[in-house]
Amino acid sequence: MKAVVLAGGPEVPKCPLSVVRPKALFPLIQDVIVGRLLRALHSTDVDEAIICANGKTRVLREHFLRSAPDLLSLAFSDDELPRGAAGCLRDAEGFIRGGSFLVVESSLFLDGGIRELVERHRAAGAAMTIAAVPAWGRKSGTEHEGCGVPLAPLGVYVAEAEVLDSIPTHGYFDLKEQLVPKLRAAGADVLVSQFRGRHRVVAHASSYASLVQELLDGELGLEDFAGLREVERQVWVADGVDVASSAVLVGPVVVGSGAVIEPEAVVAGPTLIGERVGIGTRAVVSSSILWPGCRVGEGASVERSIVTDRFRVAEMARLSHSVAVDTSLRVGEARGFDQRGYLVRAQGMVARAVEKRGGLRGALSGLWRALRSTGAMGRGQASAEASAGEELSTR
Fold first, then answer.
1. Which of 205, 236, 252 is the last residue of a domain?
2. 331 — alpha (psi -120 to 50), left (phi > 0) or beta?
3. What is the structure's pLDDT at 145?
4. Is the pTM of this model over 0.70?
């Protein structure tokens, strides 16, 4: 069976992590989201897949050139202009024409349920089957079946090649908002079926962090730990890891290949440490996700944060409940992010903030010294000075 993986389209509101990588390439244990998805599809008899990425094809293709999946044949489709989810299907017609095919959004974690969905689709003789889950919860919802709970599309579809004839060859054409109504209006059988497999939707930084935590806790199975060495209880390391003997690791923790953890550093789970990550002497990392190539400086503290590729946490710095991105953000850009409890910290923004703060402190100190020398400061002004000084020292 063939599958179309949809990895393009705009994000509204935008996840701050997507400044660094498309959601499909967010790291998990020994894989990325779309890589894990392709493995799940292959386990249900999918042997060929095409990724439609609308402008993101290059970075996805480069990723799979470095870590090509050995399970199935993989192709890519790119559109210079946005075509919408259904438009992408029509553009991939040469790949999928000839029988039933799957359509899956790339930001999904799936475990089971696909084979049963395909069987129900074929038994019903439907032109398209839409996998649905309880609208108020995006985790596995089998316990809600038959309870009258409203359903919402999960982002998984089974379709017959005939539906491609209803999609125009040019212009934007959405799957849910345009193709499905057009099929129903033409009398085609469109089935809505509750998805019975385990599933998670990565929509923002918070849902991504929750998925990683569940994986580290083993709540979604242990297959992602295959090939890792469990050196202590719930502490897994890949080959080529350098962990100082005086470092302390408290699981669940996964350490990727090439990572270096220096003396007296402390890592407390659930924490995912990517490839080539450096954690400095006496640094503390807890309940966080460190993407490949980032660095936590000596004595620094990272708590409940996501540190993205190549970001450098300065020595003795503290990062808490933050998404750290190694890129400059345009003025006001962070306001449009779906932060969900995370602060967005950009490498350039942090540096500029420190510079401005130092300049302000120096200017106020000079003003206060001048006022003292002239004797012009009264009791009320002295009180204001103390308050201002306390405010600056807490920043």
1. 205
2. beta
3. 46
4. yes
